[in-house]
Design a protein that fits this description.
Helices cover 6% and strands 37% of the residues. It is mainly beta. The chain has one domain: Jelly Rolls. The strands form four sheets. Strands 1, 3, 4, 6, 10, 11, 12 and 19 form an eight-stranded antiparallel sheet that branches. A hairpin with a 2-residue loop joins strand 13 and strand 14 (271-274). The protein is globular and about 55 Å long. The protein starts with 13 loop residues before the first helix and ends in a 10-residue tail after the last strand. The model is unreliable at 1-8 and 10-37 (pLDDT under 50).
Amino acid sequence: MKRIETMLCGGKSRTGCVCAVAAAALGLIGMERLHAEDPGEGLPSGAGLAAKYRGDEGIWQHPAVVFVENFEYATLDALEERWESVSHAEIMSLAEDRPRHSSGRRSLAVRHVGGEGDGGHLYRRLDQGYEKLYVRFYVKFDPTCAPIHHFFHVGGYEPATAYPQGGAGERPRGDDRFTVGIEPYGEAWKWDYYAYWMEMRGSPPRGQTWGNSFLGRYKPDVARGQWTCLEVMIRLNDPQQRNGELALWVDGRLVSHLGPGFPKGKWIFDRFLPDEGGDAIRWNDKRGGREAFTVAAGGEPFEGFHWRRDERLKINFIWLLVYITRAPRGHESRIWFDDIVAATEYIGPLGEG
């Protein structure tokens, strides 16, 4: 099995990857405004198809659902049979802790101790590739959890593989891969994306490409010590167009939606900053250096995602990842996961019945 760090950012810290984003305070007004001005297809918030199934009981019967994982196993051996790649199962266990309204009895607990490795993962292919997919999961961090370096990823490989591939710091070609991470950024504990695709932006000093982020000052706080519902939506583009989309919900609230022409903002190397204009800077690959420019007040429309240039590249994997590189020696971190659902429609939080 390849080491996790070769797949993401060379094993460097957030700061070393240049993927670090200065943590900015999130105001409720900012979240509401980002949602209220969403000019896309009118994505929903709140209840989704999960509302029809109390605690997700029987949700796998819904025709839009393509994958469910609720960790209701008697042993970890049964879990390992369902996931194609399991890294460091010795730090995983089945715990009697679960989200409110969950119909199950167990969740997956991942325990990391500083100085004893970098974490572990579960990875599996989906049965087929998808043009548009929603993936919802619940997570809980112990209040003293060390900063997470990389986390939960959804994306596509062509051809599909039974294990996560490499490519840290390399821009995808458009016919091989794309990935979207939903990650708790740094010591500030803020949610944002960590995305690789064929037109991702580079950063100094050599124009290398680490995962791009898109929430700027609108990053939602990570609520450690309690269960949180996260959901990501990826809509693939037509191969010759930048009409792909990306969206994120936190506890059923739509906090981000990006697509062709929305939202407005500016790029600072590999960070898109919604609602910001003025001085900006990017890495110019042709010149091999920085290029400063100015955008209008309030920003310019986001160009949309050119996830791929080959229609054979689909959304076809889920990668549950705990990768911790900055924990003090002996420091114990615990993370719990539960109630993962992938569907072709919006899923929403657990139904209360």
